[in-house]
């Protein structure tokens, strides 16, 4: 009898693709590390990159999930803004002392 084909959840596929995208490691290395084929992981990475390039067109069907996602995004943007404010102040003070 034939062996059953492995199935992976959408969350697992996204996380595996993010390993490649976020760390800039080669697909083949990550694929070997997590035990999937490099071609399969390459397809997952392509799908995730396409999803990242396309902004969400519709609001999430689940308002609670959308709210949680937006709260995380707002927190990240606030951290980025604080960092940029500190960096701007640092470079402004560096320019004044020279």
UniProtKB/TrEMBL annotation:
It holds the Pfam family HTH_Tnp_1. It comes from the Bacteria. InterPro entries: Homeodomain-like_sf, Transposase_8. This is Transposase. It comes from Nocardioides endophyticus.
